[in-house]
Design a protein that fits this description.
Elements: H1 2-9, H2 14-23, E1 31-34, H3 35-49, E2 53-57, H4 73-77, E3 82-84, H5 89-101, E4 105-109, H6 120-133, E5 143-147, H7 163-167, E6 173-175, H8 180-192, E7 197-201, E8 209-212, E9 229-232, E10 237-241, H9 245-257, E11 263-267, E12 270-272, H10 276-286, E13 289-292, H11 301-311, E14 323-325, H12 336-342, H13 346-356
Length: 360
Amino acid sequence: MAALRRLLCGGKSRVSVIFQREFHRSPAAALQITVRDALNQALDEELERDERVFLLGEEVAQYDGAYKISRGLWKKYGDKRVMDTPISEMGFAGIAVGAAMAGLRPICEFMTFNFSMQAIDQVINSAAKTYYMSAGLVSVPIVFRGPNGASAGVAAQHSQCFAAWYAHCPGLKVVSPWNAEDAKGLLKAAIRDNNPVVMLENELMYGVPFELSEEAQSKDFVVPIGKAKIERPGSQITLVAHSRPVGHCLEAANVLAKEGIDCEVINLRTIRPMDIETIEASVMKTNHLITVEGGWPQFGVGAEICAKIMEGPAFNYLDSPVFRVTGADVPMPYAKILEENCIPQVKDIIFAVKKTLNLV
């Protein structure tokens, strides 16, 4: 883990260099900001804006965060606003939920969402259900955030995607950013929301730089929860993804464009509530749909999209079955070559597109 943290936190990571090359970001074109710095900026702005907001979690204060998301915030805001906790997710998640019930707006960081299973009773039974069970008298304005999904070389117990787990539960909102704009805008929206929000980040994206629009640089900028974004318009096939696989879809679309295949890429941004209307409108235009996710296939995000398309008006526009590209249905192996084959790759998306369009 220590080596991984050095890779992800120290200077430009190998992943960062790869993404810069893939997406051809020009430093002179616009403000460049990493996903890590976008999250830090959002936290700083919201801590400054509302004195009820505070951050707690393991190593978030004096150490500046395990992945340096909270860098500089403890020195600026002090112990009452940025709090280190013991290694007890059940304990500090419970404290955060109680604080939210009492009128504060906590941001609860899990060092990885794999550890959130230690606190899942607090997240589901306490945070998600209280507003309903109190007949609307007690709101729980809390954000649970941290890295989610597969990283690199951390094996089965640290590599699960929890998007389907938490999106299954009424009472929670679940967001999953891809780039810096998503990260900043969704985190600010989550902090300002009066409902519990689970924010699933990806640690392999933390060091990746993206252009930040002038609009997104504003302290008032938020990304609406529940609204997807069309990252690349297209006419022949729709690719829907969230988190890191959005970048894979864009790369696959660029490769396929050279072969005359025009893909539309949708960045879900929010898993619950899901913006099915944007997906349906795209399918009605392209007549084909592929979902891409890093999680397991059974009962996954892609499976939910398939069901909603089947039940809605877009089904009659499909010219072929919906195809799901997912993680392998096994616990994550430690060996590098096996790990790579368990995570959706660009080549897998390209193959799925060609198969769906009957080109292979």
